[in-house]
Amino acid sequence: MAGNWKMNLNHLEAIALVQKLAFSLDEQTYEKVDVAVLPPFTDIRSVQTLVDGDKLNVAYGAQDLSAHDSGAYTGEVSGAFLAKLGCTYVAVGHSERRQYHAESDELVNAKVKAALRHELTPILCIGEVLDVRKAGEHVAHTLAQLDGALKDVSAEQAAKVVIAYEPVWAIGTGEVATPDDAQEMAAAIRSRLGELYSQGVAAGIRILYGGSVKAANVGPIMDQADVDGALVGGASLDADGFAAICRFDQS
Ligand SMILES: O=C(CO)COP(=O)(O)O
């Protein structure tokens, strides 16, 4: 269960949220669920200090990284720096990056490789806009994004990637995909991973659903055979709400 905070919460607010979140989660939940937060870059050092100091069971990561490791790339953040800060995860190819920063499948592919180079787990985001779904092209479109993002990524590396299916029409709209929609795409993604790599690799890759997930709707989504978790935006900004999402099987 990963919380993508997007451009919300400064470093002081980050500390308060992670403290409260960790306090709200119990051993039973940690045994079943990997819990992660993806704060803005400027919060990560503070989150690291808190998580290390209090030995919290919450992993953390970033929302993006550079395709490059260092050099004259003003404003970019290297995967090497994120690894040094103890990040476990980094989101790659989020639809807001694709939409507002014109990130192509080629760039997303380079960023997946950059993350893997620095032993970060990429959370690779893919998914279709509403027009594509209305045209019935959502599976082909999303699988093409998957193929592009994983070009020249070996089976050994792919085994470390987390895939997040996030239909763009369900992000921040309150319009959650039905559990059947989530399962249809998660199954298609797993099947394509099986073709690209092997059934064994495909079975082990974690596939998340993202788009208007909250405590009230997470249960039936998590019941789907091929959905292993959720990438949560708005509802992860509230510690109690996100904790309830993380306890999906106990609520
Ligand atoms: O984009 C998302 C997570 O990356 C989903 O956002 P919401 O949960 O706010 O719809």
From TrEMBL:
Annotated membrane-spanning segments are: none
Q: Could you state one GO biological process linked to this protein? A: gluconeogenesis
Q: What class of enzyme is it?
A: isomerase
Q: Which InterPro entries match?
A: Aldolase_TIM, TIM_sf, TrioseP_Isoase_bac/euk, Triosephosphate_isomerase, Triosephosphate_isomerase_AS
Which keywords has UniProt assigned to this entry?
Cytoplasm, Gluconeogenesis, Glycolysis, Isomerase
- Tell me where in or outside the cell this protein is found: Cytoplasm
Any one Pfam family match given in the protein's UniProt record, by short name: TIM
Quote the cellular component terms of the Gene Ontology held in the record. cytosol
Enumerate the GO terms in the molecular function aspect: triose-phosphate isomerase activity
Pathway in which this enzyme or protein is active: Carbohydrate degradation; glycolysis; D-glyceraldehyde 3-phosphate from glycerone phosphate: step 1/1; Carbohydrate biosynthesis; gluconeogenesis
- The record lists substrate as bound by N4, W5, K6, G172, S212, G233, G234
Q: Which SUPFAM superfamilies match?
A: Triosephosphate isomerase (TIM)
What does the record give as the reaction this protein catalyses? D-glyceraldehyde 3-phosphate = dihydroxyacetone phosphate
Active-site residue list: H94 (electrophile), E166 (proton acceptor)
EC number annotated for this UniProt entry: 5.3.1.1
Function (record text): Involved in the gluconeogenesis. Catalyzes stereospecifically the conversion of dihydroxyacetone phosphate (DHAP) to D-glyceraldehyde-3-phosphate (G3P).
Q: How does it assemble?
A: Homodimer.
The similarity annotation says: Belongs to the triosephosphate isomerase family.
Put simply, this protein is called Triosephosphate isomerase
